[in-house]
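Z., the sequence and structure:
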Amino acid sequence: MERIKKKIAFVIGGLTPGGAERVITNLSNSLSEDFDVTIITFIETAPFYKLNNSVKVISCFKELPRPKSFIDSLKLNYNILKKVSKIAKLEKIDLLIGFITQANIKAVLAAKLNRIPCLISERNDPLKSDIPRFWVILRKFIYPKANCLIVQTEKVKQVYNQMLKSKEIVVLPNPISTELSQLRRAYSTNRENIILSVGTFNDDKRQEKIIYAFHNLKLSDWKLVLIGDGPNKSKLITLIKELNLAHKVQIVSKVKNVHDYYNIAKIFAFASKAEGFPNVLLEAMHYGLPSLSTDCNYGPSELIIDGKNGFLVPVDNQAMFVEKLGELVNNEDLQMLFSIKSKETTKKFLDSYVSSSWKNLILRHLT
């Protein structure tokens, strides 16, 4: 007789392209072997990453209005909370798992209304100044009511230990999907002269720093490929034109086959000023891409040991960023060394290892 699986549900805004969305997809696919998995989204979006057929996706609303005032915003969030709670009740969910601040807060409250346990996962820099004050206050009071707060790095855990009186804070890194791992090719010297960067085009990711560095190096036989989308896309396009780099810098949006780019590029560049944990840097290193990253909080320093398996540069030291990128471009032996060491570094982030840690944590809170 087949045993009845416990029902767990992830809560997130939508299943759009992004780091947290990829992690939820990876975890849902892995955990569906042991649990009946549902993903509750605030708005209806076609899943960007490939989900197993056994994973159910339920949306609260087809679309949401843009609030015109603080009162509108309160009403909207209250309606989303009611819907999350109702879905959890109708689906007879045994445990909720929130992802990212607003979803975490709604997941905790919905879990309390349904008298079920709740785990929450914070993906961002806890000290980011652009989180609205309303959510910062709610986070302080509501996060401790979750059964467990999951963070991605020890440094983030230390910050939350000081900020919150949470029952339990656990560090679980992001998993590299098995699917992505299987598509990996060996790093070889016959790759194309491409510097690759992947990430949302926003003020945190600062792709313009990479464009300026590429421009300063005047690389006649190299290309820069920026994969992503976001609010700063038009600014980046304008900058590329102003620097007369249209023939050398390519912007590619809505990419599902990012592995193809990891497999042909020679170097990965990352210039963020703030991170929760940089999935794309982890993926690039897993593919053996020699990487250069800013040493922002949090994540890059947990992946890169400067000069051993990549380069770490202080966040606002553009001159050093240019220098180290040039060093990587001009030294094939260094590229190969960083490639080998990078792949070794990422072994502990493999899906099977991380997912089993999630499974054990969930089981502990279901009993």
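Residues 181-348 form a domain with the Rossmann fold fold (CATH 3.40.50.2000). Residues 29 and 52 are 6 Å apart (CA to CA).

Let me know what you think.
H.
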